[in-house]
Amino acid sequence: MATGGINLSKDFFELLKAIGESKSKQEEDRIIMREITTLKQKMDAPPPTTSGGAVANVLMNSKKRAREFLVRLLYVEMLGHDASFGYMKAVEMAASASLYHKRTGYLVCGACLSPDHEFRFMLINQMQRDLQSANVLEIAGGLLAATKLMTSDMVPAMATEVGKLLTHDSETVRKKSIICLHRFHQLDDGTVTRDELLEKVRKVLCDRDPAVMGSCLNVIESMAIDDVTPFKDLIPSLVSILKQIGEHRLPSEFDYHRVPAPWMQIKIVRILSLLGQADSDASSGMYEILHETLKKADVGINAGYAIVYECIKCITKIYPNTKLLDAAADAISRFIQSRSHNLKYLGVTGLAMIVEGHPQYAAQHQMLVMDCLEDPDETLQRKTLDLLYRMTNPVNVEFITEKLLDFMTTTTDPFLKQQLTTRVCSVAERYAPNNAWYIRTITQLFEISGDMVSTEVAQNLMSLIAEGAGESEEADMLLRQNAVELYVQLLQGDKPPAKFPKILLETMAWCLGEYAYLSAVCGLEDVLNKLCILAQEQKARLPAATRKFLTNAICKLVAQAGTCPPQAAAVIDEYTRSKDPDLQQRCLEFQALLTSAPQLLGQIYPVDASAEDVEVDINLSFLDGFCQEALATGAKAYEKPEDDDDDEDDYGGGSSAQSAFKMTPYEKPQTGGHVNSYAMRGVSNTGQSYAPSGGVTPPPGGTTGTTMQQPQQMNAAIGSNNALSLNTRGVANVWGKGGLSAAAPAPPPAAAPAPPPSAAAGQNAFTSHMSSSSSAGQSQYGGYGQAAAPPPAPVEKTKEQLEKERMAAALFGGIVPGQAPPPPSQASAPVAPPPPPKPAPVAAPPVAAPAPPPAVEVDLLDLGGFDSTPAPAPAVDPGIDIFAAPPPPQAEAPPPVVETVSDDDGGAAAAAQAAPAPAAPPASTMVDPFAAEGLLGSVSDAPLASLGGGASQKFEYGGSPMAPLTITTPEFGQHWGTLSATSPASLQSSKVLTLDQFMTEAGKVGLHPIEAIAATNEGICAGMINGAILVLVHGKVTPMGPQSRLDVTVKSSDAALPGSLALYIQNMMA
C-alpha cells in the first residue's frame, strides 16, 4: 500500500475512484454492496490448477490477491457494512511467513474484530511465536498487534513473554515492550500490578538509548495523572534529563529544526507540572530548569513556541514563583504582540491561565487584549472572551458583560451561545454593581437568548423586584418603577412582543401586572390594552404557561383599575373555553367574581402583595357557621371512622402501631446563623416598621397590601424564599466605600500602597541574569536575533485611540493595585423616570450617606504591617513645673471598639478586647546621680504608657486595623473560591513550631481562628478591614526539628492587601 500502486490491481483503484465520486450515501451503499458480492466470490473461489514450474508463481499471486482482498475488505468495514465473511482470511494471513502479509493480517484483525470476538483467541499462539522469534521485525509486529488485539482474559498468557523483552538487545523491541506492558496494566492490573510496572518504568527511564527513555515518558505521564506520589523522587532525574536535552547531548537525529528533541521536552515539562502542583518542595527543584528551558526554546520556530507554551502552563500550575511568573508574562507578551493569529491565540490562552491566580500580569496587555477582542478571527475572539470572563471583578463587570452580550448577538454557534449565557448569568449575579443594572442586564439577556436561560434566573429576578434590597421603601419603589419603565419600553418598541422569548414575556407580564401603576409614561389602561392585544392575537402561538401569566396580569390590572374594559372581558371569555383546565378555571372564577362580587377584587388581587406570606387556616374555622347551621337543621355530626381490620395486618414484621416513617418535623433554623448568613450576602434589615411612601399613590380600586413587615417577619420571609433571592454577596447594600447615595461626595483617591520588596527588588542574580540574556539576543517572535528598536517619539492620539484606552481602563479596572476605577456610565445608576403628565406626589429621595472622612495619607515606604500613621509628638506646656508633684493618675481610656460581623440577632459590632496591661520593666541597676542627690523629688521614672511593651500587633491597612470575622468553615470555602487576589508566602520559623502557636499568632494579627485541622497541620482564619475588605488566610505548619516551615496563603477582595499581609506575617512569625 505504501509502494504507490505496485502489485495492486486495476479493480482496487476503480473501487477507490467510485467511492470518491459518489454523490450520495445511497450511491455509495450500492458500490459497497457490489464490492461485497465480488469479494465473496473471489475469496471463496479455489486457485486455478496448473502443472509444472508455474505452481510457485500461482501461489505467490494468490497471496498477493488475498492481501489486496483484505485491504478492500477493510474499506467495506470502514464504510459501515458487515465484512465478517472475510475475518477468517485475515486470521490466516496473520500466520503467514511473509512479514508483509503478516502485518496486513494483524492490521485487519485489529481494525475489524470486536473485543469479545472469538477469533481473537486464535491469534494468541501466533503472537507468542512472533514474540519468541529471532527476527526483530516479527517481534515488533507481534508487540504492536498485542497492544491492539489483547483483552483482559488474554493478558496472563502474554505478560511473561513481554516482560522478558525489556532486556532485548534491540532498542525498538525495548521501546515497544514497555508500551505493551502499560497496555496490559490498563487491561488487567491484577496480572501486571502497579508496583511491578513502576519498577520496570524506573529501569527503562535509565536506558542507554534515548528513544527507549522517551517511550517511558508516556507511561509516567499516564500513571502520574492518577497518582503522583510514587513519582515525586523522580524529579531530580527528570530535571537532569531535561538539562541534558537542552545542552544538545542527545544524537543529532533527535533534533527538529535546531530544537533538540522537542517532543521529549514537552513531555517532561508536562510531567513536572503534574508533580509540582501544590507542593513547594517539589516545585523548588524545577524552578531553575524551567527558566532555562523557557529561555533556550525561544528560537523563533513553531517547535520552540510549543515548548514555551508548555513551560507557561507548567509555571501557572506549580507552586508559584515570582521570577518564573515574570518570565512567563514576558513570553505571553511576545505571543500577543506577534502578527500570527496562532501565536496570538497561544498568548491569550496563556494570559487566561496566569490571570486566574495573578491578575496583575494582565494589566500591561490592555490594548493588545482590546485588539484581539476586535479581531475578525472568530476563534481568537472566543478565546479572548474566555479571558475576559476569568478576569471579571466588581469594577469591570459592566464592560465585560456588555462585550459578552454584543458577541452573543452576532454568533450563530448554539453551543457557544449557551456557554456565554451561563457566564453572563454568573458574573451578573456575583458582581452586579446595583440592582437596577442587574435587572437591565438580565432583561437584555432574556431578549437575546431567552430560550437558553434557566427558569431559576427569572424567579430570582421577580423575587428581587418584589422584595427589593431591603434598604428603604423609597429605594425599593424606585427600583420597581425603573423595571416597569423598562418593560413598558419593550412593549412599545419596534420589535413585536410576540417575537420575544417565552421567559421574557412571562417576566414582563408578571412585573406589569404587579406594578404597572408606577409607570409615568404609560397609563394603566394603555398597559392593560396592550397585554390584551398580545394575549388575544398570539393565543395560538403562545404556550399555556405564558398565557397563564398574561391572564393573571390582566386580572390584576382590572382589579387595580376598578373597571373591566371590553378587550379584557373578551380575553377572559375566550380563555374560559381553553383546553388547559387550570387556565379555564382561573377565567371562570374571575368571571364569577366580576358578576357576583366585584367589590372583592381588591382583596383577592391586592397591590404589591406578591412577597407576602399566605396565612392558611388549617382548622377551616370559616366553615364553623355553615356547620352549625347544618347541625341545627338536623344534619348528622361527623364521626371519625374506625380503622379497618386490613390496616392492622403486619406486612413488615413489626407492630402496625409504630409507623415506618419518621413524622417528626425538622427543627427551625437558628436565628443567629440566619442573620449571619445574610450579613455575609449583604442583605441588611433596618428593623423599621413600614409606612406607606408618600411618593406612590395606590391605584384606584386596589387595596394596598403590607409590603414591609417587622424585622422578625422580614427575616422569616427572606428565609422562606432563600432559593429565589438574588445572590448579592458583598454588593447588596454597599456599592463602594462611599455608599449608595449619589449626593455624597467621592473620597479623595488614596495613595497606592508600595509593592512588597519581593516584587520591587528585582535586581538579584536570577532576575538580572534573565534580563541580560533577554536583552542580549532573545528572539522577539517577529524575527530571530533582531536588536531592539529605539522608543518612538510620542505622537498625538486620535479619538479612536482615546476611546480604545477608555475601554481598556474599564476592562482592567480593579486588577492593577492602585489603578483608579473608570467613571461609572450614565446607565449604571438607577435613574428616576420622567414625571407623569399630571401632578402627583413625588417620592422623597433617599437620604444621602454622610461624607466619609478624608483618606489618611499613606507613606509609600509603609508595608502595611506597622502603624500607618505615627503618633504626633506631645507638645510641652510651658506652664507645667517639671519639678512639682505629679498630678493624680487619670482613669485609663477604654479600648477602641472594632466593628465586626457578629452572630447575634442584631448583627451589631462586637467590641474587641483590650490589650493586656504591659508588665512592669525590671528595675535598672544603673546609678542615677540626680536621683541619688534627691534632685528629682517625687518625679517617677516609670516608662510612659504609650511606650510600654504591650503595643498591639494587629495588622493595619490604610489606617484601619484588622478585625476578626466570625464565620464557619463552609462559608470560608464559599468565599475562598470567589477571591482572586492571592499572595502565597513560605518561610522557616523558629518561633512558630506547632499549629496551636500559628493559630495564636494569627489571633494577634487580628484574624479570627476558624478551624485547626490537626491531621494535616493546617489552619484557616478570617478577618475584615474597614467593614468592607474581606481577608482569608490558610496556613500549614511542617515541623523540621528545631524549626518549622510555614506555608501561608492570603486571599482578599482588595488586590494589594494580600502582599502586604503576607509580608507582615513573614516578619512577625519568622
| Helical coverage, percent range | 40-55%
Rg, please? 40 Å
Characterize the quaternary organization of these chains: single chain
- Strand percentage, roughly? 5-15%
Return the average pLDDT rounded to an integer. 75
Task: Categorize the overall geometry.
Answer: globular
Largest sheet: 7 strands, antiparallel
Low-pLDDT residue intervals, each spanning 5 or more residues: 1-5, 50-60, 646-657, 671-698, 700-789, 817-950
Q: Specify the number of helices.
A: 41
User: What distance lies between the first and last C-alpha atoms, to the nearest angstrom?
Assistant: 71 Å
Secondary-structure content class: mainly alpha
What is the number of beta strands? Answer: 9
Give a verbal description of the structure.
The chain is 49% helix and 5% strand. By secondary structure, it is mainly alpha-helical. The strands form 2 sheets. Strands 3, 4, 5, 6, 7, 8 and 9 form a 7-stranded antiparallel β-sheet that branches. A hairpin with a 2-residue loop joins strand 1 (255-256) and strand 2. Helix 4 packs antiparallel against helix 5, helix 13 runs parallel beside helix 16 and helix 15 runs parallel beside helix 17. It is globular. Mean pLDDT is 75; it is low at 1-5, 50-60, 646-657, 671-698, 700-789 and 817-950.
